[in-house]
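2 proteins. here.
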Amino acid sequence: MSSPPPQNLLPQVDLGNTFGALFIAGTLAAVLFGVTNVQAFVYFQTHRGTWTLYKLAVVWLWVFDALHLALLTHCVYYYLVINYANFTVLTEIVWSFKLQLVFDVLIVYGVHVLYAYRIWIVSKGRSRVLPAAVCMIVTLTSGVVIAIIWAMYQCHVFADLITRVQWATYMVLGTAAFVDFIIASSLCYLLATSRTGFSSTDSFLTRLMIYIVNTGCMTSASSMVAIITCAVMPTNFIFLTIEFLLAKLYVNSYLALLNARYYLQPDNPDTADFLGLCATHPLPYNKESEDEKLQNFCKDVSRLPYDQLYPARPIQAVMPQRPIAVTMDTSSFSSV
């Protein structure tokens, strides 16, 4: 008599909420990497010339973003193709999963450093208290980066992400959202105090502040959603899906700020040039009142020579441009 078939001892894994979520993350990451390519192309087309720190930063972000996508693709391919239906391997963490999280936190930290450097440059000529505080906060977050990398390499199975290093997930996502708020508010303050009194430039600065707030809210909201999903649904990989996309969002948000001159397209060309100067030069800090501006303008005008104030019009400009008709009366001539 044959023995009864053994019971299925394989763990019941919901592939839709776990590795299916990772597959969706890989697909969306590829789409966002395409957006990164477009933004990098637009930046190099609109900023031709010598290589600067910003161009090197764009190249560095693009390389790290490409490596992050390659590691994420290998991770999905390893679980869903190579080890298809191998539930023993599906519970283990592959090396590319750990390494792509390292690139994830390095990209986020690198973007924060670039934002802090931008704040330092824009605040030149005024008090350094605010940019120094921002730079100090960003520097202190390097400890969080080291802690999350160390905690990640202490995990060997996916259950360790919840039982051992869940605190690290909350810490790194909460720190990222806090730094986003500090950077966005600092940039908006510097732009708000750089108004020149001209309507075209001031309206453009207002649009730029709205642009910065929107990009900062996008990354901060994504971090908060990842924290909430990790707390509410810790047994699936939905929070990991959002974490995988965070690096792409940070890269695109920074490139979008660099390409703001191209995207906003102000009608006034002088305002467009002003935006280009904001990328590498500090904004003027103007404390003059309207009366002082008017008095300084009158003083500057009074110093101009007379021929520049009242230039003489050329003769050709006032002469009629039509031909002069000449008529002759032949009857006035006597016959010979």
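next one coming up
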Amino acid sequence: MGFSKLVSFLLIFHLLNPTVVLSSSSLASSNGLSEIPKKFLDFAKRQELFDWMVGIRRKIHENPELGYEEFETSKLIRQELDKMGIPYKYPVSVTGVVGYIGTGKPPFVAIRADMDALSMQEMVEWEHKSKNPGKMHACGHDAHVSMLLGAAKILKEHIEELKGTVVLVFQPAEEGGGGAMKVLDAGVLENVDAIFALHVQPDIPFGTVASRSGHLLAGSGFFDAVISGKGGHAAIPQHSIDPILAASNVIVSLQHLVSREADPLDSQVVTVAKFQGGGAFNVIPDSVTIGGTFRAFSMESLTRLKQRIEEVIKGQAAVQRCSATVDFHENDKPVAIFPPTVNNKDLHEHFLSVAGDMLGTDKIKEMQPLMGSEDFSFYQEAIPGYFFMVGMQDESRPPLKSVHSPYFTINEDVLPYGAALHASLAARYLVAAESKVYAPKENLHDEL
């Protein structure tokens, strides 16, 4: 074959096989790529950045706000993004903020933090205790926001190394409000190829992370039921229709849905955690209100539980001559059932690589599935997603209280780790994605 024919053949072959060859400047070397997580962690541990993240976290902790009410939290986030020169979109889903760092072009990868607090009174006595009665950051969302802002600082400092665009998602209303679904509905993630999120975990050792491929957290639903009878004097129950007795039978029967109807290998939970009725020791009330939650690892099981919960409540109430209404909060939540959190297999391998380079493979724990629930699962139904835990427990200190406890506290030494993991997962994902061919997509956002 002549030289000119060989050149023509190679040109045609290249055009027909549009695999992008990674340049030496994009990867530097395999060693350079593996050094990104360590470099970012060292950067996050700088005293100035660490103190800044601690200050942000404490400001948010002092002023906890419930779902879709995170106006001051959102304002603080926007002020910090403005100082960093990071563009953003606001409002997204009432109080959410979505920022952008990088080239403004594909590939796009998102990192997310939730912003809302819980409706509970903080019992921890310290300088930065909640100033809003009946509201507390008892699930670590104040730390999550601080970490994501820390990641933004890291990425902004290394913006020339980004091979695409990182989307910063500050999400409202994770605690039952379905904020993730509303962020998706806003259309701000249409061109995102992957999304990551983390959660601080008090029972995992500090300096370690935990997750798994596939099912990680259960899907969930919530219900309230009003069981109505006929009130009267406790001494003459024959003239009454006792809703307390009916509700008691309902609660016992609901437990049979798991023990007698569910496959033992298909983990499910039905818990009645609320029972309100009566106010005097000698008066049978007219009605009783109960409420609870149900959990499972498949939408099929969740849908079946929802159906059977309603049937059992109404049926058992009728046995005791009572009537019942059941509310699954379909009118005040985006959906009646939150899907399970299922981690993408390829992103799990990516996580293992990045976390291993940063912390060492011995610091990565295979996590058993939990019956807890996370609305991050809505993102995973639309985009490949990955959710993981970051350990906080310093074994030289007393055990930390669990999330959703009024005594919950944050080991603030974890902040640089969360920030660096966020930044490293995003930056390394963009480097890996650079080898793929991105066909032009319609409806690209102007700000991207």
